[in-house]
């Protein structure tokens, strides 16, 4: 079949509209002899039959392997340059007690971005010393709890927060380790980065204000200064933005060394993943190698010791592990400028994955319950919400005989899918099911109608 002119230019007609490109699908996803999608030994139809659809299916071994690989790559590369690395999993991408255990068992720490995320990590039994707390507007209660439980690092995001954290630490008789988040002026997105004197955004403090802020931190006996922090963006494919941010932070880091210890440098998260077959992110070994070279090179230039580097990947740990399964309902062939776009509507939508609507993010899709040798047709996968922007896959090719009742799988939904899910139109949030070695188990149950009604005070309880 030739390209449908309605397709975006990046999307080619696949040779096989049943194929599961390895870069996009979780490690243990493949098709069985009968053509069904199977993940970690559990078939998509079995998951759908037991747990219903929509359902998020997490390939546990995939998530663990990615967590482990990131840690091992950074450990190895920073050992090569005579230092060490600390990896924090950014829980905002997806956090449950189970996932908190997986990543900590694989040797990662956890970055939490609110009191709620902190509560989940603590409920999982994670040692508070392995947590880092972020946020541009942490409440006094969040700070107090973090200090009182002994969170390993609080990332101070504003000058006013220095006094707030110091007061909490004094109240609890603790010395609280802190980082200082810098607004480096570097912002990166998938394929490009922007570097300005100062980025127009709410996070961190300007480079120029940092020496005075660090002096204030150091003046408090209740605070221990760990170092600077920078996070330049998310879904980044290149290392140039990180290099530029590191270069800017380094000059400051070296200057701060004159006034005391600066043991660490935190360069944030943001490593990109493949959502479609045209995405080609850097391999983690290569990222780690470049990071170590950038940091070691910068340290050598300034004649300072190579700091311990902390990173905070979220998406690249959990994103590729998860596939969302839906059931196809209504299909419409919509004629646009003389060409057909097939709208395939499924039983979820922007309430379980808002990224396509919110960011225009691209995903891909496959029929999960069978293979088909029908010619490929351009489809748009839509949800069931009362909103025309409720799209899950803007464009992909599926076998043209896709029909009601087929199971549809969208891969790489593990990051910022469930985490940003909502109850729009009173759809219950789907369950999260972990699959491993042929066994499926619910790690977060789905919401029922009674869950949806349970906070409505007008309902007789
Ligand atoms: N560290 C900090 C300070 C962050 O703000 C973030 C993400 C991360 C680490 C993790 O970044 P990652 O490795 O996951 O890219 N909802 C958006 C992404 C928002 C990212 C917010 N901060 C999305 O769905 O694309």
From TrEMBL:
Substrate binds at residues 315, 355, 359, 387, 416. One of its GO terms (molecular function) is diaminopimelate decarboxylase activity. Keywords: Amino-acid biosynthesis, Decarboxylase, Lyase, Lysine biosynthesis, Pyridoxal phosphate. Its cofactor is pyridoxal 5'-phosphate. InterPro entries: Ala_racemase/Decarboxylase_C, DAP_deCOOHase_LysA, De-COase2_CS, De-COase2_N, De-COase2_pyr-phos_BS, Orn/DAP/Arg_de-COase, PLP-binding_barrel. Residues 74-317 form the Orn/DAP/Arg decarboxylase 2 N-terminal domain. Pathway: Amino-acid biosynthesis; L-lysine biosynthesis via DAP pathway; L-lysine from DL-2,6-diaminopimelate: step 1/1. Its EC number is 4.1.1.20. It catalyses: meso-2,6-diaminopimelate + H(+) = L-lysine + CO2. It comes from the Bacteria. Pyridoxal 5'-phosphate binds at residues 270, 312-315, 416. The modification N6-(pyridoxal phosphate)lysine is found at residue 92. Gene3D superfamilies: Alanine racemase, Lyase, Ornithine Decarboxylase, Chain A, domain 1. It holds the Pfam family Orn_Arg_deC_N. Belongs to the Orn/Lys/Arg decarboxylase class-II family. LysA subfamily. Homodimer. Specifically catalyzes the decarboxylation of meso-diaminopimelate (meso-DAP) to L-lysine. This is Diaminopimelate decarboxylase. It comes from Antiquaquibacter soli. The gene is lysA.
